[in-house]
Amino acid sequence: LAVAALGLTAPLGLVPLALLGAFAALQLAYSLGLKHVVLVDVMTIGGLFTIRAAAGAAAVDVRISGWLLLCTALLALFLGLAKRRGELAPRPEAPGRPALQGYSLALVDQLVTVVAASTIVAYSVYTFTAHSAALMATIPFVVFGIFRYLLLVHRDDLGEEPEAVLLSDVPILVSVALWAVTAAAIIAAS
């Protein structure tokens, strides 16, 4: 798979190749040890998602906003921390993942709150500086989605499998759909 990725990426230029190399190196570092280091584990996940976003933009030769990259990193960090909370909440005395031993439920809850607020602020700033100021109309969908996810994490302890929550919760899916339709309409009109 690595050889195939290299073969597919090489014709796209040096930037996509560099991003592929950075992704592979960070993924390897995560697998070999960073996943066991408190805080670094979730920050690495955020970094991996950010590299993917940057690589996607480079692959199609589109300039990506630094604010959008920050939103990607923060959202991945938010989901990673919520996952740690989900792993920790049901069994705080005997966590399964080695890095969980360095977390406490109170710390993770505080970090989730900080990152959720930071994500909303970063997305809001992105909309102010994006193609059209009308993208600010999408902020309520992002706020609702984050708030809904927090509700599910705290009320129902659903953070352990973020992909399941994001693909099955109807209010989140509706919010994402409304965000996509609104953003597409605004971008098409500008």
Can you summarize this structure?
This protein is mainly α. Helices cover 74% and strands 0% of the residues. The radius of gyration is 18 Å and the shape is globular.
Unreliable residue stretches: none
Strand content: under 5%
The coarse overall form would be globular
Note the gap between the termini.
40 Å
How confident overall, as mean pLDDT? 90
The helix-and-strand class reads mainly alpha
Beta strand count: 0
Order of helices and strands: HHHHHHHH
Q: Can you summarize the main beta sheet?
A: none
The gyration radius over C-alpha positions equals 18 Å
- Give the proportion of residues in helices: over 70%
Number of contiguous helices: 8
Outline the structure in words.
This protein has helices at residues 2-9, 14-32, 40-59, 66-88, 105-129, 139-156, 162-168, 170-189. With 190 residues, it is an all-alpha fold. The radius of gyration is 18 Å and the shape is globular. It starts with a helix and ends with a helix. The model has no long low-confidence stretch (mean pLDDT 90).
Keywords:
mainly alpha; 8 helices; globular; 190 residues
Write the layout of secondary structure elements.
Layout: H1 2-9, H2 14-32, H3 40-59, H4 66-88, H5 105-129, H6 139-156, H7 162-168, H8 170-189
